[in-house]
Amino acid sequence: MSEPQAGYLGLAPFLRASLGEGDLPALARQWLDRAGREDTAAAWMNLATALLCLGQTQTALAAQREALSRARTYALPGPDEPAPRLLLLALPGPLSANTPLDCLLEGQGLQLVVHFVDPAVPLAEALPEHDALMLAMGVSEAALPVLAALQERLAGWPRPVLNPPAAIRRTERATLSRLLADAPGVLMPPTRRVPRALLESAAAAGAWPEGLEAPPFLLRPPDSQGGHGLARIDTGEALAAYLAAQPEGEFFLTRYVDYAGQDGRFRKIRVALVGGRVFPVHLAVSEHWMVHYVNAGMYGDAAKRAEEAAFFRAFPEFAQRHAPAFSALSERLGLDYVCVDLAETADGRLLIFEADPAMVAHAMEPGAEFAYRREGIAPLREAFVGWVRARREGWG
């Protein structure tokens, strides 16, 4: 049986430091020193996490391999009182590979144990005792064969299985767009994979052959996260420049939808679905169509934060207004927990950008100016803990 290693901190303290409450480079140096002196699995994994937060991906993944050569199962800091143990099956790789539930829970309500599966032989070893099991990984090229293997391995599992493999596979971008094509109150333009050769011929000819979306459209590499490699293509020249910078052999292509508000600003909303209920995670307001909370100016703009605070207060009305859409999302995805990035269109529909069980949900920004976020995300934390407890108690 694989016993959990103590001392692994998870992502939470390193994310908090990256948001300004601490010195992330100093933390990385500390764990580099400790990994060299102690040579424990937890020290190497903490070093890997710190380096991933600093963007030193290749060095971080080397440290992660050192950790996994010593142990694959890690206990995260949890509550002092007895709590249900949730075993998370994670995939080795970058931060975007798995949901960082420790950033949402912050040691409250559940004891989290992370087991990093071996992609070559998933779950070859016995797992530690647990009250429920959850697949923590999102969909990716690396995850797809692992999910297929886990679907067979987890059939008839003796504990509740949250976010089963088949449901996670539905969040692949092309699959998701087909799944939601006729969902009430939802707009998600068709997304498909296109080969590089087709795009190169279009760029060379300056024309758009049959089967290729006319501009403006969006392109991204298959495993792109956080906007990396994402671009809006308006002309053949822009397409040629994009291909010159991106080496991948295929791309996701989808029609661009202008979702700017009347003031010209773009508002991207992140929500979480837990057991069919919807909760707010954040609202980011930006002058650019590609919106991410960290680069939207939310930290330095009090007016934007005030708008987000108002969004949290008014969320029950927002959820009620879009109840048919959220119900369709929950039913068609079939996930216990998933985050969805979306916007509200001028005609009142929800424009879906992506649904991903590995997206981060947190309220770790320091300072009194973000107190509204800590208050606003608390219901999501409570709902998730309650859902896991309910699944455990209703089992058998």
From TrEMBL:
Q: Which InterPro entries match?
A: TPR-like_helical_dom_sf
- Could you state a single Gene Ontology molecular function term? ligase activity
Keyword list, A-Z: Ligase
Q: Which domain of life is it from?
A: Bacteria
Name used for this protein in its record: Glutathione synthase/RimK-type ligase, ATP-grasp superfamily
Species name: Tepidiphilus thermophilus
